[in-house]
Every structure is written in C-alpha cells, then in structure tokens.
Amino acid sequence: MRIGASHRMRKELFQRGIREGYLTLTEIDAALPPGTVGQGERWLLLYSLRAAGVEIRDGSGGTMELPPPPAE
User: Fold this and answer.
1) I need a surface site. Which of 6, 43, 47, 63 has the fewest CB within 10 A?
2) At how many degrees (to 10) do helices 39-51 and 3-20 cross?
C-alpha cells in the first residue's frame, strides 16, 4: 500500500468518526487491513481517534476502553 493511500484511509476514518461520533473496531480494522500498520501504530490511531472525541465501540456496540500501549 502506498503511503498516500494509507493516509487517505486514516483521514476518512477520522472524518467519519467525527461526523458520526463513533467507529467500531470492525470499521477501523476493515479500513486498515492486516499488515498495513503495526501494533504501536494501531494503538496510536485508536488513541488519536479517542482524543478527537470519537468513541470506539466493540463488536457488540459497547464502548471500548483503550488498552494500554504495546510494549516495545
């Protein structure tokens, strides 16, 4: 995946999340297929979404707490 495409996908996630107020983990994972971001980058994305006021929901629709950052 090109850097431009990855950036565009993340930007679309932020826009949709801010507009709707939440995103599900399924939506996030579908936008960022396996292998496109590492664990640390994924955690930072979730953290950044939360900081922007986007609620992260699990598969059952419940609010998900942000897990601790992965150990390096």
Assistant:
1) 63
2) 30
